Amino acid sequence: MAEHHPQAQVHPVPDKIAKSARVDRERFEELTREALENEDAFWNRIGQRVEWIKPYSRIKDVNFDLDDLHIRWFDDGTLNVCANCVDRHLDARGDQVAILWEGDDPERDEKITYRQLHDRVCRFANVLKRLGVGKGDRVTLYMPMIPEAAVAMLACARIGAIHSVVFGGFSPDALAGRIIDCDSKCVITADEGMRGGKATPLKKNVDRALSNEDAADRVDSVLVVRNTGNDIDWDADRDHWLHEALEHVDADCEPEEMNAEDPLFILYTSGSTGKPKGVLHTSGGYLAWASWTHEIVFDYQEGEIYWCTADVGWVTGHSYIVYGPLANGATTLMFEGVPNYPDNSRFWQVVDKHQVNIFYTAPTAIRALMRGGDEPVRKTSRESLRILGTVGEPINPEAWEWYYNVVGDGRCPIADTWWQTETGGILISPLPGATDLKPGSATKPLPGIKAALLDADGKELEGATSGNLVLTDSWPGQMRTVYGDHKRFGETYFAAYKGRYFTGDGARRDEDGYYWITGRVDDVINVSGHRLGTAEVESALVAHSAVAEAAVVGFPHDIKGQGVYAYVTLMAGREGDEKLAEELIQWVREEIGPIATIDHLQWAPGLPKTRSGKIMRRILRKIAANEHDQLGDTSTLADPEVVENLIENRRQV
Ligand code: 6R9
User: Fold this and answer.
1) Mean per-residue pLDDT for 97-106?
2) Where is the domain boundary, 463, 479, 508?
3) What is the pLDDT of residues 540-552, one digit of tens each?
4) What is the number of the ligand 1 atom nearest to the C-alpha of 422?
5) Is 278 in the pocket of ligand 1 (CB under 6 A)?
6) Does 499 share its domain with 548?
């Protein structure tokens, strides 16, 4: 039975947008039909977005069955991703700005044309070669949001090296783990990064990561960008300044011919169990999907200024700051700073300063800015804006309406884009010129995307209903494997439902076929749009000598979407007080990084367990959310008193 949900206000496609859109309603219908009726023609259309060195003859070779799990697209074609993003544009738009960089300090910015980008990428690539980096080698990037981050990614792609970008907010331990997992021989970093007027000690963190012997054994060189110019420690055998290394190279660097299925990058992401997984994306299909979706979802038009506020440390930065926009010859704005520095108007000042047309951000940023009221927005013009976008977590209808009415002055369609690190690019989203909007809904799957909702037994549900979101078939941007662990790839994504990719998300579909993503159904918390595995936080906690056991759950948080709630059982004889709570919170931040900041820590003399010893997180989630009157079935609890104690001593949030 369909549940009852109040009918949200529908915002129809504005006439002005519909008239000029790359995809209008009719075109959307055509594409959707083609994808169903003539699959090869449709996917060939996507494949043709890439400039191939040797054209492909095969389109798709996919099997989702565990015993022969493989995903290949355009797999006899060859290309170079960097050449597609840079060289390809030199004739038609060599003097157009490719990367428009806006510093944390409002006085600092930089415009890099496609020709200049080509020069910088080629030189950077030659530096990597001189350091002995070649095709197939892994390179870890730990960078601030400066142009060199994008240049380094493209330089890796140019020589066929596989980049693994680690977000600059991750701790030295987390960085070391990722360096070891993919066996990186080179690390690229900067002396420091600047955000909101504060410096982050990136090089110092790299030094600390490499004090881990396993990591140090693998890395022969650390390439350092001089950014803030402050003093850093130096290991003359290992460390190289980029600006010095650049003096020894020229700007000639032929792009390496790569197979469509050669790896492009690894990006680590949190799952419900174990250590973070190295999500592997390959070259041809990934690029084709990033490029096509960037064009149709944002209705990108020649000459427009496009701004995605993500960090390149996340997949959104990979696909929608670097690869998608540059493949399309767009001007992509890269912002070093934060939304509230120097003040709450910063985003909109940047929009006015650079005449931004398309703006893509996260619900958590919108909610934080909404708290600051309308005035910081209203005092700016924002007239250049045409299209808005969001990504990372469900957007609540209040935040959606504020974004639409206040930021967009009721004029700009919002693309609420659902996708994942694993999907490489957007899969469910409205198209500005084709889809009527319902606030809070990511609307419909893109043409070619076969989404379905399943019940717990794997039965496909029809019509208006709720269930677990799966994709029943592949698309070119899909991840190919977990780096170094193909078995885990199968177990994580294809074991729950035979022959289908399980997203880990739950969703509702309404009577119009619109999808409403309800969030993760596994043990992953979405904090400000960033994924955090509860298991990761738990293992960090139990690594502290005072902690016997820990259970971590998410709870609703006004700004972050979800906050982190930790239940901690101490070793016998240890007393839980404020000081120890602070120490544990700090401990976890140091183990994982500031994203893993526990919002509430409760001392738990015992944890609710089933008789077989499984922690009943469902109950812990209810207590954290202050919904202990809705605990549900508690009949399998080994010791009901444990729950009473937790409710009684729950922290007032
Ligand atoms: C791109 C990105 C993926 C998870 C995903 C889902 C949540 C992302 C969303 C959304 C509702 C949206 N998510 N976009 N939920 N509406 N528009 O965020 O990748 O960091 O791997 O996170 O984020 O839960 O499964 P990633």
Assistant:
1) 98
2) 508
3) 998 999 998 899 9
4) 21
5) no
6) no
Q: Answer yes or no: do 555 and 639 share one domain.
A: yes
Given a contact cutoff of 8 angstroms between Cβ atoms, the answer to whether 596 and 540 are in contact is yes
Please answer whether residues 160 and 256 qualify as being in contact, where contact means their C-beta atoms are separated by less than 8 angstroms: yes
- 125 vs 652, higher pLDDT: 125
- Looking at the whole model, is its pTM more than 0.95? no
Q: Which residues are annotated as a binding site?
A: 195-198, 316, 340, 392-394, 416-421, 505, 520, 528, 531, 542, 544, 547, 589
* Mean pLDDT rounded to a whole number for the chain: 95
Q: Which of 17, 148, 160 is nearest to 83 (CA)?
A: 160
Q: What is the pLDDT of residue 631?
A: 86
Q: 511 C-alpha to center of ligand 1: Å? A: 23
Q: Which domain holds residue 159?
A: 15-508
What is residue 1's predicted lDDT score, i.e. its pLDDT? 36
Is 60 a domain residue? yes
Q: Examine the pLDDT at 9 and tell me if it is beyond 90.
A: no
Q: ipTM beyond 0.95?
A: yes
- Classify the phi-psi angles of 125: left when phi > 0, otherwise alpha if psi is within -120 to 50, otherwise beta: alpha
At 592 the pLDDT is: 93
- Checking if the pLDDT of 3 tops 50, the result is no
Q: Please list, in sequence order, all residues whose beta carbon lies within 8 angstroms of the beta carbon of residue 92, skipping any fewer than 6 positions away.
A: 329
User: How far apart (Å, rounded) are the C-alpha atoms in residues 117 and 101?
Assistant: 12
Q: What is the DSSP string of 186-238?
A: EEEEES-EEETTEEE-HHHHHHHHTTSHHHHHH--EEEEE-SS-------TTT
Residues 494 and 379 in one domain: yes
Euclidean distance between CA atoms 536 and 538, whole angstroms: 5
Residue 449, pLDDT above cutoff 80: yes
Maximum pairwise Cα distance, the chain? 73
Atom 19 (ligand 1) nearest CA: 420
Residue 630 lies in a domain: yes
Q: Please check whether residues 597 and 641 belong to one and the same domain.
A: yes
* Same domain, yes or no: 459 and 553: no
Protein residue closest via CA to atom 4 of ligand 1: 420
Q: How many domains does the chain have?
A: 2
Pocket lining: 168 vs ligand 1, CB cutoff 6 Å: no
Strand, helix or coil for residue 294 = helix
pLDDT average, residue stretch 574-596: 95
**Does residue 521 lie in a domain region?**
no
Ligand 1 center from residue 316 Cα (angstroms): 10
Identify whether residues 73 and 189 lie together within a single domain: yes
Give bridge partners of residue 615 from the DSSP assignment.
Answer: 609
Look at residue 265 in the predicted model and tell me its pLDDT: 99
Rg of the chain (C-alpha set)? 24
Q: Do 393 and 290 reside in the same domain of the chain?
A: yes
In a domain, 5, yes or no: no
Q: Is 391 in the pocket of ligand 1 (CB under 6 A)?
A: yes
pLDDT score at 652 = 53
